[in-house]
Each structure stands twice: as C-alpha cells, then as structure tokens.
Amino acid sequence: MKPMAEPKDSRARRSTLSDVAAVAKVDTSVVSRLVNNDPRLKIRDTTRKRVLDAIALLDYRPNAAARSLRTARTRTLGLLIPDFANPVYAEIIKGAERAAAATGCALVTGSVKGNGGDADTYLDLLGHGRVDGLLLATPITEAKEAELSRLGMPWLLLNHSGQSRRHVVLDDERAAGIAVDHLIALGHRRIGHISGPRGADTARQRRAGYTAALRRAKIARQTGLVTMADYTAAGGAAAMERLLKLPEPPTAVFVANIASAIGSLHTAHRLGVRIPDDVSVVAVHDLALASHLVPPLTTVRMPMAELGARAVHLMLEGDPHGPVQEVVGEPTELVLRESTAPPTTR
Question: Which stretches of the chain are assigned E, i.e. beta strand?
Fold first, then answer.
C-alpha cells in the first residue's frame, strides 16, 4: 500500500479535523465521530485504519471546542464586547448570563478596549478549547472568522452583522424611525442627528432609519444636521456642541445611543440651552438611569437582554456552524419622558 503523503503545511500550523479528513479522503463528520467514539459510526475497517493513520501522520489532537455544544466539556461560552464603559452592553450581558445559567453553562466576558483595542488577543486566548463557543458583539475580520471555523470553534455575531453568515441583531432602523417619527409628530421639522461611529453597523442602520423617517414626512435633508460621535458621553457632548453652534440650530436631536445622549444633555446645560424648551432630545436604548437624568430622557427601548439570551440559545440549540441571520424585534417601544416637547417660537 502506497504511504500517505504528508501535506506541505502540516508542520506550519496545528492540524485540524478538515486536514485529517482531506488526507484520509473521508468526510469531516467521519473523523469527528471516530475521535469522539460514536458507537453509531459504521465504517469499514480499512477506512477506520486510514483515518487513524492520518491522525497519527498529522499529529492531530482533538480540540474540545470542535465537539458539538450539546456534549460540550467546558460548559462555558465566551462573550466579547467593545467596551465595559458602554452601559448598553450590561443589558446584553445580563440576558446572556441568565440564559447560559439556565442551561448549566457559565459566561466569560471580555472587552476589546480591555485588550488594548485588539480583538485577536481575546480570540486567541479563548479560541483553542477553553470555551465551547464565542459570542462576538464586536466586528472581527473575515480571516479571523475563517480561522475560528477551521479550528472548529462555534461563533456568532450579535448586535452587528457586517457581511457575516452568522449573526443575530436588533431592528436598529425601526428603532430610529420610532424616535424620529415621535419628533415629527410633535411638530419638529429641523431635526439633528448625533450618529454613531463610522463603520459601525448599528450607526448605519440608525442613520438609515432617521433618513427614512424624514423622507416619509417629506422633510428635505438639511446640511449640517448630521454629526458623528462615538458611543460615549464625551463623544455625544462634543457632537451636541457642534449642532447647537450652527447658525440655525435644530429644534430637536435624535441621538443614536444613550451614552452619547447623556453627554449631549450636559452640553446643552453648559451652554444654557433648555431641554425641551429650546431643543428636544430622544435617544435609542433605555436604561434605568434615563429616568433620573435632568430632564428625564425620552428613549426608544430595545430588547437588549432578549438579544443576549437569544444569542446563547442559538449557540446551544442550533447548528453551531450553520448560517444564522436573525433579527430580535420585540419589545421595541417609545418611552416618553420630559426631554421632548413641541417646538417653541424663538
């Protein structure tokens, strides 16, 4: 029998299930069931020997994370978020933790900012069998997605989609539309928008909702009324100052994120602009602290905890490697407080 040829790159990186399957000329499921001692696997002795020879040749070591989540060995999921300072992610984490605990799993959470802005550090740490799956609330490269898949690590994006085939998101465009429709119904026609970071999925969707609401009301877009900010109070404060110092400031502002909205309220107070008498403010996301701001902030409540819980359920109950494209839409609702009112004549 002619000996198997060793792949050229087998010494350059850790061998994977797919490598073994390719050398043994079998489906990856055969290799997986064999290394997991599946008693239902029925294959010829010659095929079994071919797979075992390939495993020995490649020095393949099974990765715990490559196994089905239904028989996971670590009973732990990883969750990567952009920044713990953003209060919105606290709701996602709470929902994910509750769902994981209900199934006997633990949740390990880290942030990109905590790793110096490098998601790869976190992924490299947890992506080699330390957890049974990764929930990613921050963008990663296509190359990193491919690497995780090659390693057999189940992953799922949440709160952003990009071009990924595996994601669960909120209906950000609809939420923005609800906020802007509310301002229009109050009589506002010069409506500013403090957007999110350039390149962020959520920012693009909320800006699309803002634009669509103006179009529905036949309100022409006006130059200078959209300004970008990151999802922080400092970013919102600076963006609000730009809007309020326009020659003709807006009478209302839709803010894409509640952290940014907190900063915008501070700027208005510092500049002597009364809310809502001079400018109305509404933001996406609702937190308990929104009712304690001055004035209490009108928001659009979104299902953040439900998003975290649904992501966990999809990881544990669905195909860990199959396509997922889901939108969690409810409850999404306007929460009326004192930061919005009809425009007044200046």
Answer: 76-81, 106-111, 134-136, 155-158, 166-170, 191-195, 226-228, 252-255, 280-284, 298-301, 324-328, 333-335
Q: Are 87 and 290 in contact (CB under 8 A)?
A: no
d(C-alpha 287, C-alpha 305), whole Å: 11
Farthest-apart Cα atoms in the chain, separation:
92
The predicted-structure confidence for 56-65, as pLDDT tens digits, reads as follows 888 886 654 4
The whole-number pLDDT of residue 115 equals 58
227, 194 in Cβ contact below 8 A?
Answer: yes
Q: Contact, 271 vs 298, CB < 8 A?
A: no
Question: Which H/E stretch holds residue 288?
Answer: none
Helix (H) or strand (E) holding 154: none
pLDDT tens profile 34-44: 776 666 677 88
Cα 320 to Cα 67: distance, rounded to the nearest angstrom: 10
Length of the chain: 346
Asked if 315 contacts 307 with a C-beta cutoff of 8 angstroms, the reply is no
C-beta of residue 300 within 8 angstroms of C-beta of residue 285: yes
* Amino acid in the structure at residue 293: L
Let me know: does 186 contact 279? Beta carbons within 8 Å. no
83: Cβ–Cβ under 8 A, 6 or more apart, which residues? 89, 111, 112, 113
Cis status of the peptide bond prior to 3, with omega within 30 of 0: no
Q: Say if CB 202 and CB 161 are below 8 A apart.
A: no
Residues 203, 229 contacting (CB under 8 angstroms) = no
Q: How far is CA 327 from CA 76, 135, 276, 283, in A?
A: 25, 16, 33, 20
Are residues 291 and 258 in contact, defined by beta-carbon separation less than 8 angstroms?
A: no
